[in-house]
């Protein structure tokens, strides 16, 4: 099976005045379709930078990133943006919903960007909200929702356009334990039941233990890549 | 300007600054918090300062316009009077000699600097320049002792006329006459004295100053000073008498001497004894300086009124910015409150920050204001020249008084500090926890009981006070009190109705009242106060914007198909509409800025349009079929021009001549605006000669215009005037009406008679004298016999209305007439051309006011720029998310541009609709539009240009922030903290 994501020799350096910080050092990573991959590591290890670079949100200094066989950094900004709209979904730690849009309007946003007719888009958004348990919150604005509800709207938005891959950056970072558990149940369920590919950044070991594959980072390098199946095999 | 405001303004500003200084010194935390905020957001700081600069500049500019115009008129005192404070004129030579003899001892009076006597006669002059004859029909030929004239006035002071008396065959000219004749020292000129040509060599040309520029009340006097005895000789030969003029100089300089006018005039009257009844005593210096003050004050007030809309926009800009800053800093403010900073100190911190912006804006604002004032005054002077019927006009002399600069700066500072303090108090009332957690404020909270009681009481009081105000059509109160009553009723209404319903209903009622008040009470504009227009415009703009803001979603419903298109464009439009809907306060205050300024700009455009549409009818009303007005010297010998036109060589081109009897009189103000007497150009019309010049208002019982003219013959106490009688500029309203009375006095004999106004002319232009003998002289028309009876020999046939035959060019015929009758000093003016020239000047003045007001539009555009800069900063994370989700950079850019375009367009459209509607209602009912009967045009072209230019400027203001937004890197933006 060809990989959904293939990153080779990815390097990213941040420059602030005279100071240079290398956030990613010649990093290689492959993600197969249907995988749920956790990216873990201590603070400052480069987890979020990795997510940003592999999703094309940020530029890289060296290396190559292919998503669905297309080299992200060989594309123009406009092409990459369009590619993101068609192939990727995002879940952020701070939810990042559009405050002036209702829950349904937020969810239908990716569909609008890919040309789905408004009635179809609205129907799918409502259906998606129902799936994440928010059927009664369709017309609520973000500031009228709790943190957990907001994150579920974000997940609905990330999934509604049926993207090839969903990037989740600390999706439970702003939630209490109970709410975090619910969100993780939702994500793992989607992966398990629908084969949704998800790359999830977290620093929470409890969450890491629930993931089938975990890559660990330190100082911008990938230091381990462990599959739960391997661990179970080891015993 | 406004020296009476200086102390209160400086006092209040001083107290405010002192308080802030105390806060800064005694509360270091507050000071640090405030000053670091200033340094933190430099772009916003620059934009706040720009807004304040414009506000201060507009105020200072308006005051400088007043200073400059007042000073320019005051210069007339230096040019045409110098040391002359009082003028005593006798038509009889023997009386004149007696007057001179009686007044000479006054020279020893400690309150008097000098007494000077001479004779003067109206004359004409001609010269040859570059082989071409040059004529000037408006000349004053003087005969006086030039040695005495040189010594006249304060010892060592400049009387304006120095040097030896001209020798026989020589003449001394002043600059205006030399300029008109294009001649100079050593050149030959011909003077027509009582119609007889006398050749002279120009001995010297003296500057137009003091006695050298003196006349009988004209704004520009073209003087020739003859050798001793020449005028007497010419008068004797013609069997006429020159006017005897004695002038008195009060102790002190040109302006200081005016203070002694009343006591010195009293002494003159005492000294004149029985001659007081046979000579006219004038106080020209006092009149000129009073007119200067009136001109400066009224024009300064007019521009301040126009500028006040921009000032309101400036204050709104400050409020808007501070509300936005507070929103951004909400969690931070919540924290400082949580750790123990009192609310009052928070207000102090905001006020200090605002004061820093306002103080930084002060000096640039004053400097730009001086420039603006100079520009406006320079253009205004050009326009005033076109207004002048006698060709004199006003020479602009730029002046700025320290009082105006201090007043302007203090007023600008006070408005800024007031807006900031009020906003600071408002924004300091937040819930600490909600602020820290950045939660929305609870909008559903019901008003507190105390507020409810106070506001309901005020609502009742305003409603009660509104009843008599509306019944009496009191301008400001009629608009303001019902609106305030409705506003104060809001807390009570909120107890029973939802917020949106209350806001919409109150706004709709205020708007309805604002638009229809002038229909219900048509006399609401009959006030010289300009505040009523400011209140009207502000109420209309604010209420309309509240109404629109509360119902924006419904108004945008027709656009829903466009905003829900599943494209990048559709998303851009959706975002562009969503944010203004969500941020109602900032959108509303930006909308008010645009609406207010657009309303007034469109109102001025529409008034210009109404005037242009009425021009032909106005010309017809003013001329009544006559094409020319001629003025001539009745003392000139030879053929009487009126008779010559009937039977002379030019008669074939003339179909009718109506000679007019002329006298100088003084009248009380029928509108009771001044207790002083008005200089009046008294005109007597022959019985039944004039029937076609149209009236605006007639005495009840006089069925039509000819009936009014006929009534002048039948009723010696009937007079007619035009609507500008006694007006000193600004909106005149209807200060008098047919049936009102006045007292007309012959200044030569003191004979006074009561008169009743039988009709108010639509235009009295045909009756304004064109000989330049008086600067401000209001025509008053009566029957020929009644004028002859009251004024006796002082009333002379010195002008006529002429109707030319079809096909004769009035302009060419006027030139021909002036050439033919130069010896008689004939001045011919085509009446219709004058009407067109005056209309063009009025239109130009409206354009000037529009230009001044456009500064307010700059404030609105700056405001929009500020909102956009802040919006980009606030929405960085949202922009990052949008970009992450697949929104193109150009979509982000477009959404910002469309958002600003949407707000600007909505504001301009709203303002334009209100502007057209308000003008239409005023046109239907206001007396200010009386006589303008060319219909109500909608000026689509200029309104489209205004909307287009505003939209383009607004997009330009948003372009920078929009591009900045498009460049935001999503990876960085999605992780930004709130």
Automatic annotation (TrEMBL), chain A:
<keyword id="KW-0067">ATP-binding</keyword>
<dbReference type="GO" id="GO:0005524">
    <property type="term" value="F:ATP binding"/>
</dbReference>
<dbReference type="InterPro" id="IPR017911">
    <property type="entry name" value="MacB-like_ATP-bd"/>
</dbReference>
<feature type="domain" description="ABC transporter">
    <location>
        <begin position="5"/>
        <end position="233"/>
    </location>
</feature>
<dbReference type="InterPro" id="IPR017871">
    <property type="entry name" value="ABC_transporter-like_CS"/>
</dbReference>
<keyword id="KW-0813">Transport</keyword>
<protein>
    <submittedName>
        <fullName>ABC transport system ATP-binding protein</fullName>
    </submittedName>
</protein>
<dbReference type="InterPro" id="IPR015854">
    <property type="entry name" value="ABC_transpr_LolD-like"/>
</dbReference>
<dbReference type="InterPro" id="IPR003439">
    <property type="entry name" value="ABC_transporter-like_ATP-bd"/>
</dbReference>
<dbReference type="InterPro" id="IPR027417">
    <property type="entry name" value="P-loop_NTPase"/>
</dbReference>
<keyword id="KW-0547">Nucleotide-binding</keyword>
<dbReference type="InterPro" id="IPR003593">
    <property type="entry name" value="AAA+_ATPase"/>
</dbReference>
<dbReference type="Pfam" id="PF00005">
    <property type="entry name" value="ABC_tran"/>
</dbReference>
Automatic annotation (TrEMBL), chain B:
<dbReference type="InterPro" id="IPR050250">
    <property type="entry name" value="Macrolide_Exporter_MacB"/>
</dbReference>
<feature type="transmembrane region" description="Helical">
    <location>
        <begin position="396"/>
        <end position="420"/>
    </location>
</feature>
<dbReference type="InterPro" id="IPR003838">
    <property type="entry name" value="ABC3_permease_C"/>
</dbReference>
<feature type="transmembrane region" description="Helical">
    <location>
        <begin position="6"/>
        <end position="25"/>
    </location>
</feature>
<keyword id="KW-1133">Transmembrane helix</keyword>
<keyword id="KW-1003">Cell membrane</keyword>
<keyword id="KW-0472">Membrane</keyword>
<feature type="transmembrane region" description="Helical">
    <location>
        <begin position="299"/>
        <end position="325"/>
    </location>
</feature>
<feature type="transmembrane region" description="Helical">
    <location>
        <begin position="451"/>
        <end position="471"/>
    </location>
</feature>
<comment type="similarity">
    <text>Belongs to the ABC-4 integral membrane protein family.</text>
</comment>
<feature type="transmembrane region" description="Helical">
    <location>
        <begin position="902"/>
        <end position="923"/>
    </location>
</feature>
<feature type="domain" description="ABC3 transporter permease C-terminal">
    <location>
        <begin position="305"/>
        <end position="431"/>
    </location>
</feature>
<feature type="transmembrane region" description="Helical">
    <location>
        <begin position="532"/>
        <end position="551"/>
    </location>
</feature>
<feature type="transmembrane region" description="Helical">
    <location>
        <begin position="501"/>
        <end position="520"/>
    </location>
</feature>
<feature type="transmembrane region" description="Helical">
    <location>
        <begin position="355"/>
        <end position="384"/>
    </location>
</feature>
<feature type="transmembrane region" description="Helical">
    <location>
        <begin position="943"/>
        <end position="962"/>
    </location>
</feature>
<protein>
    <submittedName>
        <fullName>ABC transport system permease protein</fullName>
    </submittedName>
</protein>
<feature type="domain" description="ABC3 transporter permease C-terminal">
    <location>
        <begin position="852"/>
        <end position="969"/>
    </location>
</feature>
<dbReference type="Pfam" id="PF02687">
    <property type="entry name" value="FtsX"/>
</dbReference>
<feature type="transmembrane region" description="Helical">
    <location>
        <begin position="45"/>
        <end position="65"/>
    </location>
</feature>
<feature type="transmembrane region" description="Helical">
    <location>
        <begin position="477"/>
        <end position="494"/>
    </location>
</feature>
<feature type="transmembrane region" description="Helical">
    <location>
        <begin position="591"/>
        <end position="611"/>
    </location>
</feature>
């Amino acid at each position: 099976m060809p990989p959904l994501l293939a990153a080779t020799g990815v390097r990213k350096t941040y420059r602030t005045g005279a100071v240079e910080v290398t956030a990613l050092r010649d990093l290689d990573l492959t993600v197969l379709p249907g995988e749920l991959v956790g990216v873990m590591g201590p603070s400052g290890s480069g987890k979020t930078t990795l997510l940003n670079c592999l999703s094309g949100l940020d530029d890289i200094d060296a290396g190559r990133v292919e998503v669905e066989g297309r080299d992200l950094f060989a594309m123009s900004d406009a092409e990459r943006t369009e590619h993101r709209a068609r192939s990727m979904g995002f879940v952020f730690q701070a939810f990042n919903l559009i405050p002036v849009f209702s829950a349904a309007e937020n969810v239908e946003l990716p569909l609008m960007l890919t040309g789905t007719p408004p009635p179809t888009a609205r129907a799918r958004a409502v259906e998606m909200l129902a799936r994440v348990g928010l059927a009664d919150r369709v017309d609520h604005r973000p500031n009228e929702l709790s943190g957990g509800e907001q994150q579920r709207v974000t997940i609905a938005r990330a999934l509604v356009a049926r993207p090839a891959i969903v990037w989740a950056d600390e999706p439970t970072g702003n939630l209490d334990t109970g709410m975090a558990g619910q969100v993780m149940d939702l994500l793992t369920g989607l992966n398990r039941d629908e084969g949704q590919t998800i790359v999830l950044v977290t620093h929470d070991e409890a969450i890491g233990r629930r993931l089938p594959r975990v890559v660990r980072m330190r100082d911008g390098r990938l230091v381990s890549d462990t599959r739960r199946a391997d661990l179970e095999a080891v015993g | 300007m406004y020296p009476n405001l200086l102390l209160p303004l400086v006092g209040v500003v001083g107290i405010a600054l002192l308080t802030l200084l105390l806060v800064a010194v005694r509360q270091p935390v507050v000071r640090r918090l405030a000053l670091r905020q200033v340094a933190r957001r430099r772009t916003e700081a620059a934009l706040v300062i720009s807004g304040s600069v414009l506000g201060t500049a507009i105020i200072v500019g308006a005051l400088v316009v007043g200073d400059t115009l007042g000073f320019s008129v005051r210069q007339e005192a230096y040019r045409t009077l110098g040391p002359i404070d009082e003028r005593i004129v006798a038509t009889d030579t023997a009386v004149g000699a007696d007057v001179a003899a009686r007044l000479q001892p006054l020279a020893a009076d400690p309150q008097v600097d000098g007494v000077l006597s001479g004779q003067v006669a109206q004359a004409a002059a001609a010269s040859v320049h570059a082989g071409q004859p040059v004529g000037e029909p408006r000349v004053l030929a003087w005969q006086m002792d030039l040695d005495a004239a040189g010594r006249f006035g304060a010892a060592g002071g400049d009387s304006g006329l120095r040097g030896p008396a001209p020798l026989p065959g020589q003449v001394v000219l002043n600059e205006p006459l030399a300029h008109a004749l294009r001649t100079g020292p050593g050149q030959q000129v011909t003077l027509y004295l009582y119609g007889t040509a006398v050749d002279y060599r120009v001995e010297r040309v003296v500057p137009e100053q003091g006695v050298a520029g003196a006349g009988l009340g004209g704004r520009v006097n073209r003087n020739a000073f003859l050798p001793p005895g020449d005028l007497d000789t010419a008068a004797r030969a013609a069997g006429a008498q020159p006017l005897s003029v004695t002038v008195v100089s009060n102790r002190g300089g040109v302006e200081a001497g005016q203070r002694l006018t009343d006591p010195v005039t009293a002494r003159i009257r005492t000294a004149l004894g029985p001659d007081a009844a046979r000579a006219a005593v004038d106080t020209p210096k006092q009149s000129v300086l009073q007119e200067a003050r009136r001109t400066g004050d009224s024009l300064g007030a007019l521009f301040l009124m126009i500028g006040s809309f921009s000032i309101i926009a400036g204050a709104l800009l400050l409020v808007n910015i501070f509300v936005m800053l507070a929103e951004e800093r909400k969690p931070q403010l919540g924290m400082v409150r949580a750790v123990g900073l009192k609310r009052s100190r928070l207000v102090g911190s905001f006020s200090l920050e605002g004061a820093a912006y306002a103080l930084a804006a002060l000096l640039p604002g004053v400097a730009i204001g001086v420039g603006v004032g100079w520009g406006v005054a320079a253009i205004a002077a050009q326009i005033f020249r076109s207004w002048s019927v006698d060709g004199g006009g006003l020479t602009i002399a730029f002046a700025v008084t320290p009082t105006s600069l201090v007043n302007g700066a203090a007023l600008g500072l006070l408005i800024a500090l007031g807006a900031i303090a009020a906003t600071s108090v408002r924004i300091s009332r937040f819930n600490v926890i909600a602020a820290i957690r950045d939660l929305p404020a609870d909008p559903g909270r019901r008003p507190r009981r105390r507020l409810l009681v106070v506001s309901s009481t005020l609502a009742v009081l305003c409603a009660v006070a509104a009843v008599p105000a509306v019944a009496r059509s009191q301008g400001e109160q009629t608009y303001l009190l019902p609106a305030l009553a409705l506003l104060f009723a809001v807390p009570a209404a909120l107890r029973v109705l939802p917020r949106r319903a209350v806001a919409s209903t109150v706004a709709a009622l205020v708007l309805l009242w604002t638009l229809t008040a002038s229909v219900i009470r048509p006399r609401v504009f009959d006030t010289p106060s300009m505040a009523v227009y400011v209140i009207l415009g502000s109420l209309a703009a604010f209420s309309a914007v509240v109404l629109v803001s509360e119902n924006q979603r419904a108004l945008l419903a027709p656009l829903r198909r466009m905003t829900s298109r599943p494209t990048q464009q559709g998303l851009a439009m959706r975002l562009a509409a969503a944010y203004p809907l969500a941020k109602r306060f900032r959108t509303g205050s930006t909308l008010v800025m645009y609406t207010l300024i657009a309303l007034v700009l469109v109102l001025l455009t529409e008034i210009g349009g109404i005037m242009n549409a009425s021009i032909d009818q106005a010309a017809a009303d003013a001329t009544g079929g006559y094409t020319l007005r001629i003025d001539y010297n009745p003392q000139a010998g030879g053929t009487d021009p009126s008779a010559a036109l009937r039977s002379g060589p030019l008669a074939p081109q003339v179909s009718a001549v109506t000679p007019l009897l002329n006298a100088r009189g003084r009248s009380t103000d029928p509108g009771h605006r001044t207790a002083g007497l008005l200089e009046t150009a008294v005109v007597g019309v022959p019985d039944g000669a004039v029937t076609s010049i149209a009236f605006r208002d007639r005495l009840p019982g006089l069925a039509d215009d000819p009936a009014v003219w006929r009534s002048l013959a039948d009723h010696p106490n009937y007079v007619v005037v035009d609507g500008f009688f006694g007006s000193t500029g600004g909106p005149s309203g209807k200060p008098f009406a047919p049936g009102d009375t006045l007292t007309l006095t012959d200044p030569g004999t003191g004979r006074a008679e009561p008169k009743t106004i039988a009709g108010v002319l639509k235009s009295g232009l045909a009756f304004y004298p064109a000989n330049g003998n008086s600067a401000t002289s209001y025509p008053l028309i009566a029957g020929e016999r009644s004028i002859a009876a009251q004024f006796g020999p002082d009333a002379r046939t010195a002008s006529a209305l002429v109707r030319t035959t079809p096909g004769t060019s009035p302009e060419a015929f006027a030139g021909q007439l002036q050439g033919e009758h130069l010896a008689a000093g004939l001045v011919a003016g085509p009446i219709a051309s004058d009407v067109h020239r005056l209309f063009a000047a009025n239109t130009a003045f409206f354009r000037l006011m529009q230009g001044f007001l456009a500064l307010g539009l700059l404030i609105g555009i700056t405001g929009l720029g500020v909102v956009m800069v802040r919006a980009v900063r606030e929405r960085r994370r949202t922009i990052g998310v949008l970009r992450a989700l697949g929104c193109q950079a150009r979509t982000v850019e477009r959404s910002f541009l469309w958002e600003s375009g949407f707000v600007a367009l909505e504001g301009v459209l709203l303002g334009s609709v209100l502007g057209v509607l308000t003008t239409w209602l005023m046109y239907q009912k206001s007396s200010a539009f009386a006589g303008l009967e060319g219909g109500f045009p909608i000026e689509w072209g200029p309104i489209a240009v205004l909307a287009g230019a505003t939209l383009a400027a607004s997009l330009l203001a948003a372009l920078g922030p929009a591009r900045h937004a498009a460049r935001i890197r999503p990876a960085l933006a999605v992780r930004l903290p709130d």
